[in-house]
Structure formats: structure tokens, C-alpha cells
Amino acid sequence: MSGRAASLLVGATGLVLCAVGLVFDPGAVLRGWLAAFAFWIGLPLGALMLLLAHDLTGGRWGRAAREPLRATAATMPLLAVCLLPILFALPQLYPWARPEEAANLKNLFYLNAPFFVGRALVFVGLWSLLSLVAAWRAAAVPAPVAVTGLILLALTATLAAFDWTMSLEPDWGSSIYGMMVISGHLLAALALATLVAVVAGPAGEGERMDLGSLLIAGLLLWFYLSFMQFLIIWEEDLPKEITWYVARLAGGWGWVAVLGALGQGALPFFALIWWPVKRSRVGLGTVCALLLASHLLECWWLVLPGTPGGWTWFAPAATLAIGGFWAALFLGRLEVARRQSAVEAADAAGLLGEARHG
Amino acid sequence: MSRVLVVFDSPDRMLDALRRLREAGFARLEVYSPQAVEGVDELLGRRSRALPLVIIAAGVAGAVGGFLLQYIGMAVHYPLNIGGRPLNSWPAFSTSTFELAALAMLLVGTLAFFALCRLPRLYDPVFEVPGMERATQDRFLIGVDLREASIDRERLERVLARFDGVRIEEVPE
């Protein structure tokens, strides 16, 4: 069985599990779906940012990472479809969409169903357009498009993080939150691209060193932003703000937070500053797999403790459902990206040959 | 014991001669060159493994010391209840702990680098050799210690016979 067929089978199984669950416990399925969506949307979003940044600046790391990044960014339209169930179930997920709980909220001018749905459609519409321009076509995008796209991505991804996950607790707010979530997206997308480049790509030792160094930069950024939010809120210790961390550090979630800080912070950092790990295929691939697994845990940790009911087994089920279809599309696009760059390389060689003869 | 300097005008010839001198059994060698020449460190056996370890040790010492400095001050000697937070406020200590670790690594690393390079050193007898100053411009020099002067001198000349136009200069005692 090919990789794509297996992925589709996994996706279909997850989807059936979620559909069955919808009959018995729709709330659990929906919050699990949101937790899974928070993970998967980060991959194409982060890949799109990295791709546009590479179009602007270039660099040797792109030689190995561009194809997987393009295939990742090309999955954006699929994630846009996966957002729809959330938009149809706002009252089940978000307290501000339930009139009895929203009565004493002061930010309803921003958090209300029509505006929320409108914003969400603008975000995924814009991102899908950028994905079609930058990832479905083979050519690099011109600089003005890349610059505009990056600015728009930074703004819309910040607002999307505020909307989709931060507003689960509508009393709570943190201005660093959007940046923190975006840094997680970037790190996950880079880890995935590096993993694919190392396992199945042409990443030489130089490219591996560059990607390893970029991963260090990404995880330092993520760790810094996450820790600063924690440090400021912990220092203030105000009832309105600390509740977010109380829910996320009590009981089992506290251990998830420790695992996340280790798996997405300390462990890969100390592994990557040691040269032999950065140089070796196995070492770098293991670090990337650890980063991705920890990022998945982080996304569940950001969403689930903030919802009434907390942990649900529908989170892994929904992660498999979206992930299966996502992987099938990703593998298909990866093949296309490989073919396109092979054609380009052949063209370049042909042109060189003609120039030499002519 | 006496020292001589062998003067070359290209890095490749110098490297070749250095390899042959090593093979001939000359152990106490030194290279003076206007730029870093790839391969010299390996031939001289000077790839230092000590510096990274020294810097890691300094970082650990700085982190432990930085944390203890705050812990002993805040929790042992001057315990103050600040807003109900625990005396051992490790999240608040963490930034200073990190800064002190970085400071220790930089300071100790810089000093250890100087010590390993045997710097600062204001005088060396090789400065008296005529033409030595061109080691900072366009000449590549190998310093050789001759233990039993006459025998070693003969061996040295035999090794260098294949390189024409090479000058051998005595370093004054």
C-alpha cells in the first residue's frame, strides 16, 4: 500500500471516529477538533512564512528545505475546509458565543459571531490565495508580493491566534500570545521541512548545519516568548490573568507543560549546539521528530485546559483525521514539487549546454 | 639546543615541507604565517579540545553560582514575603541565572583563549631573525627546534633538499 493510500485510510478512520463521537458527545469532538486544527494549521502557515522569507533573502538552507516547505504550504486550502466545522459550532466552543455567559463581557464588539466568522473567512481566504501563488506554482514570488504577503501574514496570524484559541477564555488576554503561537508555527514548519529533507531529501552536510542552526534560532524564539508570557503573568499573580496558567499547570497538564518545555526547549537546544548531532542525519531527524511531537502536545495544552471538560480522546482522533488527509495531500504535492525542480534543473543544464556550444 | 627558521614563499610549499618534517620525526615545530593555513593545526597536533570544555564548565559554574546567589539572598539570609510569592521564586531568578552563566562563559572563555594561545607575549627570540616581519605579509615560516644541533641540522637539510631556494635562518639564543 502506498503512503498516500495509507494516509487516506488513517484520515478516514479518524473521521469516522469523530463522526460517531458527534452523536454521543459533540462538545468533546468539537474541542478535540479545535485542538487538532490548532496544530495542523500551524504547518502550512509557518511554511508559507518561511517560503516567502526565503524568496526574499535566499540562502543555502532553502536548497534542501524548499520542496517540503512548498508541499506543506500547499496544504492550506485543505485546512481552510477543516475550519468550517468550528465556524458552525461557535456556541459549543466559545463562551462569548453563549448569550448567558457573554452578558458581562466588555469585548463583545470584537468577539461576536458574524464578525468572528467574517474575520476567519478573510484569514483563510488570504492564506489560501498566498498558498496558491507561492506554493502551488514552481517559480519564486517577486519581492513586492513576498513583502506584502509577510506583513499580512504576521497581522492575520496574530489575530487568528487571538480569535481561535485565546478567545476560549474571553476574560483573559496576553499581547505576546499571537507572536508566541506564530513562533510555534515557524518552528514546527521548519522541523517538518528539515525532517523530510533529512529522511528523503538531498540535504548535504552543509545544509544540515544551516537547518540545525535555524532550528536553534526558532526554538530560542519560541522558548523566549513562551517563557516571557509565563514570567510576566507569574510575577504579577493577578487573579484575572493567572487563571490561564492555573488551569494549565494543575494536575496532569503541569506535566504536559514540563514535557513541552523539555521537548521543545531544553533537549533540542542542547542536542543542536553539539555539532555531531547537527551534522548527522539520524541526530537531526530525531530532534525534528521530538520538536513536532512536543509542538502537538503544546497545541493540545493551549486549547484543551481552557475548555470545560478538558482532555478528550477525540483530540488524538481528530489529529489523525485531519492529519491523514493532510499527509495524503502533502505527499502528492511533494512529488509534484520534486518533479518541478527536476525539470528546472534539467532546463538549467540544457541552457548551460547550449551556451557552451553556441 | 638551537632553533632555526625555514622561510617559504608559498603556503603550499610550507605545508608540504611541514608534512615531510613531521614524517622525518621532528616534533617541536611552530608555524608563522600571515594567514591561517588549512591543515597546519592537524599537522602540528594542536587541535585544542580544551576550550569548549572550559567554556561549558564556566557556564555551569555561572548558572549554579548565579542561582545560589539569588536563592541564598532571597530565601536564606533575607527572607521577605513579597506579594505572597514563594521565597524560592525560581521563575524570577531564571533570567539573572542565564545572564550570569553567559557572563561567566564569555569572561572565562576569553581568558582561556588567551592562555591557550600563550598571549600576551611581548618578546620572542625569533623577532631577531632578519626578515621575520614578513611573516605578517607574504612569507610562511616554520620554526624547528634542533635538539642535537649538528645531527638534526643535517637531517633537516636532507629533508629540505627537494625545496629549492629555501632559506634557513638561525634564531639567536
Overall description:
The complex is a heterodimer of chains A (358) and B (173). With 358 residues, chain A is mostly helical. Chain A has helices spanning 3-24, 26-40, 42-57, 61-73, 76-88, 90-93, 99-102, 113-136, 143-164, 177-200, 205-236, 239-249, 252-272, 275-279, 281-303, 314-357. In chain A, helix 3 packs across helix 8, helix 3 (42-57) runs antiparallel to helix 9 and helix 11 (205-236) runs antiparallel to helix 13. The longest helix of chain A has 44 residues, at 314-357. Chain B is α+β, with helices and mostly antiparallel strands and 173 residues long. Chain B folds into 2 domains: 2-47 and 131-171, Alpha-Beta Plaits; 50-116, no CATH class. Chain B contains 5 helices and 4 strands; from the N terminus they run βαβαααβαβ. Chain B starts with a strand and ends with a strand. The A-B interface holds A 227, 230-231, 234-235, 237 and B 83-85, 91-92, 94-95. Chain B: The chain crosses the membrane at residues 50-72, 92-116. Chain B: InterPro entries: ActD (IPR021776). Chain B: It comes from Azospirillum rugosum. Chain B: This is Quinol:cytochrome c oxidoreductase membrane protein. Chain B: It holds the Pfam family ActD.
